[in-house]
């Protein structure tokens, strides 16, 4: 197949959608497909890893590109031979992705849209971007979400969009799997908690630190807990000040950026992974931890519910109060934690790399089947 991915954000920008588009394109190229990428990101020294990447003009407002400035580039890519499917990756506001999806739809090219963000709370913003940049006409596309929760959100925003598929993110679950039994047991000599994520407001790491402050007040004095927060971002200074102000310097440690190998080693000797974001569309880091045999603590209304069975592979809670209570109980119940670790290691993850690739190709087949009605493709430059 000739596949074109389009995403407003892409490498060298750092984030989940950037990693996913690149990983998917590389996997599809390895499968023998002709793969191209269109993105609004144009930065000096950007490495494309041998992929066919078409970058937009530098003109952007904040992170928002102006699609009309990239009209010629988009037309050249879409009109360069027959295209089997355009895979558009949407977040909250995705003008380039929407523009390319509409341009492809007008040409009769099947368009498969995957939504990577929690949408229903920002439905008005998405509709605004679509209407202001592109007018009221509808695109002929099929939709998917990266999780069951996101698929439900899409149906809320566009109730007449038809079926919504679930196309999970790619995670090499086998690479993260432990190769040997853990040398560490919960509480011997400390209880080890890991959190991996960018230090940005929407990851709610500040709320998790507040949770840990409340947990510390509930457990016996002298309990030894080590919380390792892996990641970098603009909120590091604020988080360091919060940790000190709450008296958590002996518990909570900001490790900064770590390599995947370092994170894997850290997970293999940890007791619990915490995913504190209430806006987790999928939870790539959480699935990596779960694949590494670490129970996951997160919220039951997020994408984690697709691959964390509460009580078996971790705990899914309702709110911050529930998270405080659950953590406080686990910190003093090493036997319960070891049971969760054993059951997590013993079970195959519910979402694997092969599952995600199969779901992607099935989604493309659906797009080609349902959107092939326009046999004559109109070339518009």
TrEMBL record:
GO terms for biological process: carbohydrate derivative biosynthetic process. It comes from the Bacteria. The keyword Glycosyltransferase applies. GO terms for molecular function: glycosyltransferase activity. This is D-inositol 3-phosphate glycosyltransferase. Residues 189-345 form the Glycosyl transferase family domain. Residues 14-174 form the Glycosyltransferase subfamily 4-like N-terminal domain. The lineage of its organism: Bacteria, Bacillati, Actinomycetota, Actinomycetes, Micrococcales.
